[in-house]
Design brief:
InterPro entries: Big_10 (IPR041280), LD-transpeptidase (IPR050979), LD_TPept_cat_dom (IPR005490), Transpep_catalytic_dom (IPR038063). It comes from Streptomyces triticagri. The protein is an alpha+beta fold and 424 residues long. It contains five helices and 27 strands. The chain has a five-stranded mixed beta sheet, with no helix packed on it.
Length: 424
Amino acid sequence: MEKRVMTGSKRRRGMAAVSALLGGVLVLSACGSSDDGGDKGSADGGTKKTQDQADKAAAKDASSARIKITPKNGSNKASINNAAKVSVADGELTEVEMTTSEGTAVAGSLSADKKSWKPDAQLERATTYKISAAAKDSDGREAHENATFTTVSPDNSFIGNYTPDDGKTVGVGMPVSINFDKAITNKADVQSHIKVSSSSGQEVVGHWFSGNRLDFRPEDYWQGNSTVTLKLDLDGVEGADGVYGVQQKTVTFKIGRNQVSTVDAKTKTMTVTQDGKTVKTIPISAGSPDNPTYNGEMVISEKYKETRMDGATVGFTDDDGKGEYDIKDVPHAMRLSTSGTFIHGNYWGDDSIFGSANTSHGCVGLNDVKGAKDPKQPGAWFYDNSLIGDVVVVKNSPDKTIQPDNGLNGWNMSWAEWTAGSEA
């Protein structure tokens, strides 16, 4: 068998190949830590030096524009009002894209100086949003930033449903009434972020009827023809443990002429005054002796040209559980209490009862016609000349005074009682 002898040159090439292979292993191993801290050899040192040089070169060429996105990436209780914003320092924004996690685009506006961007409208609760932003510095070098966040959920937030609505004209008795969808325990903090003021200069104080209801009114009725402003600054305010407000809103409404109508259940008449002058006296039929009308100051909270009144809904039922009455087209109805007290037209009663007999189940009835189509009827006149927020005072009824929280009827509390319920 022929023996082949490796020549010197071939041997050197073979050793070089082995050395190169081992060198490759050493280079790969250099990505980890060295236990002995010794010299890793010229191959590793060269690679590290090359990488450092590349990093320094990249850093030197990086954009000086610094993009900031709020809320921070990963936030999960972001505000739906002011949280979302993109800004840049040492550069200008060139592109901002905001979408929901489903890909729906969110419209936004870039500032004139191209330094900031924000959404055009309020965000949705319990929604995940993604923001991608790009900017350039003065040398045209680009910078990019991305963030994902989720807005506060309904379970972790509260809102206040308020009345009256923005831009309305209401009567002098109309309180600002706010009903919260979660019970408020941090009442003082929440009330401190709600302001109600009047152009008349009247002092306005809030009163908590419960953890869910806060009303505001002055000591006396609002001054006629004044302007009232409600400011809700509840965004981020903790109303209860882990439950935060989301509203930022300013509401303005007008107070109309001063109209107060006084129902005398004994004489069975109603006297209507405007700005202190009597404008009309109307014969009425109040609650019967078995079902008398509440006494007290009541505020018109709703108006319906026609509505259904079913006795079963307010506890007036017969032995079979059916309503003692069910009238599907009551004309010119105006609500005075949550529990079902109305002042309304009555077409089913004889004309002779108005001014002479109290026959209702607790409402105040005015003579009217079926269909609510005769403007000359007392029920129609009163409806046409009344505003939500007008006051109807009932006196000389054998019933008790209505509870202040039964409707918008806080006027039945003294000023001392009212202010005692404030957390300001």
